[in-house]
Structure formats: C-alpha cells, structure tokens
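Hi V.,

Quick status before I head out on leave. The structure for the redesign project is tokenized and pasted below; the design run finished overnight.
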C-alpha cells in the first residue's frame, strides 16, 4: 500500500463505522468523492483513502452528528462560503475575532457595519496569524491584499495559504490543496494554513 493511504477495510475496523454509514456520508457529501481512491491489488480492485484526512473527518462527524443534521454537517465541511452576514459588534461580542484585529482590518479595507462570510474569513485568518505572532502588521496588510486580489478565483476550491520568509523578506502564496511546494534552501515556509479548515472552524463558531 502507498504510504499515507488506508484501505476501506482497515478504516471500517479502526473507526467502528459501518459500510452503510461510510457511503451514506459520501452521498451526503460529508466525505469528498475524490477521497475514495480505487486501486488494483492482488485481490482485485480495492478502495483506499488519504489516511490522515479521512480519520480526522470521521472523528469530527462522529462527535458532531448528535448536535447537527447531516445537511448542516455537509454545509460546514463545504469549501463554499456560507450565506450569512454578521455585524462588527456581533463579531467582537461573540469573541470570533479580537477587537485589535478588527480595527486593523477596517483601517485597511474601510469601515463597515456588516461582514459577509468572505470578509469574515479574511479577518478570521488575519486574526489567527496575528494572535500567534507569526506575522506583524505590515505582513497583515500583505495578507489582506492577497485575499482581496485572488480569493474570488479560489471560491469553492480547497486551497492553502503559505507564508514564506527568506532572509527577512516575507511573502504569501495561495495554492490549491494537496499541491507539493518546494522552496530553495535559504527560504522557509513559516506556516501552511488550510483555508478549508478555517472555513469549517469559522462556520462552527458562527452556528
């Protein structure tokens, strides 16, 4: 078996879920179609999955399925933006982002009472990286700019944000998930952030 993959049989044994549950969740789009990988083996055709991704996803489904319907879970795992708007007062009151990040974001983009999900996501990622100290405010401006310039082209796709530094110079990249990235030896990938995971986390906080 290729490293990083788990067979369907092993998956069912390890997680304790049934064959029926697995394929029902697939039909409900809780598990992406592309994670079902058909391969030839000495016993014939078998289905494999990306091990880390499928185990994390099934663990989430099992822990959340009593509180949310399968349709609500499918929406949460979807890379598409949610159709909702929050006010900036609500953002702070619900502790979704810090007031410092909110004020900085509004300084760069212009004041606004209402936030669409897309703007919420950009602010959420900015807040996450400022809080960890991975980026400074000047780099925060670059982060906002790359989202404004390219996020529309990536709508509905699974993509990652890369933050790279080389000799004190920093830059951001937006790439489709599962792409391998190689950088020269003098450059360092400071952070690779799965935006799909951020969308999921943000939706979970808002629901």
């Amino acid at each position: 078996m290729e490293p990083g993959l788990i067979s369907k049989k092993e998956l069912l044994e390890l997680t304790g879920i049934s064959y029926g549950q697995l394929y029902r969740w697939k039909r409900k789009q809780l598990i992406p179609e592309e994670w079902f990988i058909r391969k030839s083996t000495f016993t014939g055709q078998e289905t494999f999955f990306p091990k880390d991704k499928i185990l994390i996803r099934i663990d989430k489904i099992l822990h959340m399925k009593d509180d949310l319907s399968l349709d609500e879970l499918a929406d949460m795992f979807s890379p598409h933006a949610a159709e909702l708007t929050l006010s900036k007062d609500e953002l702070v009151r619900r502790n979704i982002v810090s007031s410092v990040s909110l004020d900085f974001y509004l300084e760069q983009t212009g004041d606004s009472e209402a936030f669409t999900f897309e703007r919420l996501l950009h602010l959420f990622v900015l807040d996450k990286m400022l809080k960890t100290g991975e980026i400074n405010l000047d780099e925060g401006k670059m982060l906002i700019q790359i989202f404004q310039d390219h996020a529309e082209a990536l709508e509905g796709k699974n993509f990652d944000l890369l933050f790279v530094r080389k000799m004190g110079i920093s830059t951001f990249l937006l790439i489709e998930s599962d792409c391998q990235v190689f950088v020269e030896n003098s450059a360092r990938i400071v952070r690779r952030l799965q935006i799909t995971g951020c969308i999921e986390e943000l939706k979970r906080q808002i629901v």
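Above is the designed sequence. The first strand starts at residue 5 and ends at 7.

G. will cover questions while I'm gone.

Best,
W.
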